[in-house]
Specification:
about 375 residues, alpha/beta, Rossmann fold, Glutathione S-transferase Yfyf (Class Pi), Chain A, domain 2, six-stranded antiparallel sheet, six-stranded mixed sheet, globular
């Protein structure tokens, strides 16, 4: 997958932008707060309709404007031209068209224009709560399995209805009506997680070994809240927990409580990894995501690196570049190039106040 060009209006501090890209290595150079990350964010929205910063759609609209308009042109791996148009406004709702056809469901967009974004915010995957890791896992798996996305959406709808009834102290028959759909969705979710997680783990182990010249090892460990291998067993769990769930007014057990650990040499990296090692772990996790999506979707994702390479030590930074597939298109940002030797390898743009100006090779002075 290649991004050939982007037209953008009213996105954060970017009033109007039209850029064409002719290479596989694009660098946005400039001081902090000028709009480098904003453009990466807009490119990422094309993949999932979500911000990698976790921002709401409304917050991405330029102050004083009512709507964002985004138009992108891609070249797919078979040499075909693809187009996507996305609009969203302050009143909510998004309009999406792919190749001139309306897209009504998120599942019909996921996987079409895949991208993987590395940013400093990724450190939350090591340091923060299980909910951040679940969101990452759910988005990656949903991008490769429509069955998983359908089950996930059904699960949360059913759980929401069950929680309402639990708070109302409703009778068992009313609650049981939603437990059947909840159990059915839970079974599918955990089955697919169990099937796909080993492939994610293998990709992660390989990427971290490459990042550290195999001097350290890292693994992913899937930690389900509870295990059940059939819909009937899930129904039994919800029946057993119903009285306690009524007391707290929510569903306490199930896939919505699952987590996974990022292990370094067999130990939880939250407690035993240094800050430098944690940076390497989250980068390796994103590289693993890249490899996983490429294998499952049969297309090359875009790689978006938001001012992260400069934070690595020279050895890890060098190894990270070696790990990147040579034919993957990468977009990176920074206040300077990762090293003096790299200025010549990037198609570069200087960024200032939401404007993007191409930099001639002879002028790349950082």
């Amino acid at each position: 997958m290649r991004l050939l060009g982007i037209n953008l209006e009213n996105f954060r501090n970017i009033s109007s932008l039209s850029l064409e890209f002719g290479t596989d290595r694009i660098f946005f150079l400039g001081a902090n707060g000028q709009g480098k990350s904003n453009l990466l964010e807009a490119i990422g929205v094309c993949s999932t309709l979500r911000s990698f910063r976790g921002a709401s759609a409304e917050s991405m609209i330029k102050e004083g404007e009512s709507e964002v308009r985004l138009f992108v042109r891609f070249l797919d791996d078979d040499g075909g031209n693809r187009e996507a148009m996305i609009r969203f406004g302050k009143k909510g709702g998004k309009t999406v068209e792919v190749d001139g056809e309306p897209v009504k469901r998120l599942g019909d967009l996921l996987g079409q224009f895949p991208s993987v974004c590395l940013s400093s915010r990724d450190f939350r995957l090591v340091r923060e709560s299980p909910s951040d890791r679940r969101k990452w896992m759910d988005l990656v798996l949903s991008s490769t399995s429509s069955k998983y996305l359908t089950a996930l959406q059904g699960y949360y709808r059913s759980m929401k209805e069950r929680n309402v009834l639990l708070k109302k102290k409703a009778a068992d028959p009313e609650i049981q009506a939603f437990e059947h759909s909840l159990a059915s969705s839970a079974q599918v979710i955990q089955q697919i997680r169990g099937e796909l997680f080993p492939a994610l783990d293998l990709a992660f182990e390989q990427s971290y070994a490459g990042l550290t010249n195999e001097k350290e090892s890292a693994q992913l460990s899937y930690n389900p809240d509870c295990l059940a291998d059939s819909t009937d067993k899930w129904l039994s769990i919800y029946e057993q927990e119903r009285m306690r769930d009524r007391q707290v007014g929510s569903t306490r057990r199930g896939p919505h409580r699952d987590d996974f650990s990022l292990l370094l040499d067999g130990r939880d990296s939250r407690h035993y990894a240094s800050e430098g090692q944690q940076k390497g772990i989250v980068l390796a996790l994103r590289v693993a995501e890249f490899s996983f999506l490429k294998h499952k979707l049969g297309t090359m994702p875009l790689l978006l690196a938001d001012d992260v390479l400069g934070e690595l030590d020279p050895s890890r930074r060098s190894n990270f570049r070696k790990m990147l597939p040579p034919n993957a298109q990468s977009f990176a940002t920074g206040t300077s190039f990762p090293s003096d030797q790299e200025e010549e390898i990037w198609e570069s743009f200087r960024v200032q106040s939401g404007g993007f100006i191409p930099i001639p090779l002879s002028s790349t002075d950082g």
